[in-house]
Design goal:
Blueprint lengths: L1 H18 L9 E10 L10 E6 L2 E7 L5 E7 L1 E8 L7 E8 L4 E3 L2 E3 L7 H8 L16
Length: 142
């Protein structure tokens, strides 16, 4: 009886596996490649993290080279990509990028640097000035 149940389970598993068609396209690979640029100077950025997302699952991460270029071969599908630096730039996320089988999808990204206050405003704030109106504030002494 016990062996009959095991064989029945195996037979059902084999029948289910045979019923699901699998084609070569189900395992087709494509490549995504591009360059990450700086928005204010259009210069390429090295050391930037490019991450591939499928829904909420991280698939892979790669890092741009010294020329700002990245390339990765993955299963052909539609993905989202996050691009981020360790510091100094706003991160971005781009959704619905399709990677086609046996092709290279070119996708460039542009990162915007954080805004840095003017040096004169920083000095006024540093020495007790008002950062909004630029007036120097005097400290009351008794």
């Amino acid at each position: 009886m016990r062996y009959t149940l095991v064989f029945m389970c195996l037979a059902v598993m084999v029948a289910l596996a045979a019923a699901v068609p699998v084609s070569a396209d189900d395992f087709a690979y494509g490549t995504i490649a591009g360059t990450v640029y700086r928005s204010d100077t259009n210069a390429p950025l090295a050391g930037i993290y490019v991450s591939c997302w499928y829904g909420s699952s991280l698939r892979w991460t790669t890092v741009t080279d010294e020329y700002g270029d990245y390339s990765y071969t993955t299963l052909a599908d539609t993905y989202g990509f996050s691009v981020q630096a360790e510091d100094g730039f706003y991160s971005i996320y781009v959704d619905n990028i399709e990677i086609l089988p046996d092709e290279t999808t070119e996708q460039n990204f542009t990162l915007t640097p954080y805004a840095v206050p003017e040096p004169s405003a920083m000095l006024v704030m540093l020495f007790g000035g008002c950062g909004i109106c630029g007036m120097l504030l005097k400290r009351r002494t008794r």
